[in-house]
Amino acid sequence: MHANKGDHLVVEGNKVGLQPREGEIVEVRGEHGAPPYVVLWADGHEGLTYPGPDAHLRPEE
After folding, report:
1. The dihedral of CA 2, 53, 38, 40: what is its sign?
2. Where is the DUF1918 domain (predicted)?
C-alpha cells in the first residue's frame, strides 16, 4: 500500500452488518508511502494504523 498525506483510508467491516470506517491520513511514517499511517478517523480520534487486508485507499480529492 502506498499513501500520501491527505488520502483517505477506508477499512471495510469484516463482519456482516459492520459499517466501513474512514479517516484522513495526516502523517505517513513509512518509507515511500508505506505504513504505518497516522489517521484522523471520522469520529474525531487519531491513531497510528497498520492497515490490514480489509483496507483500501481513496486518493485525496
Report:
1. positive
2. 1-56
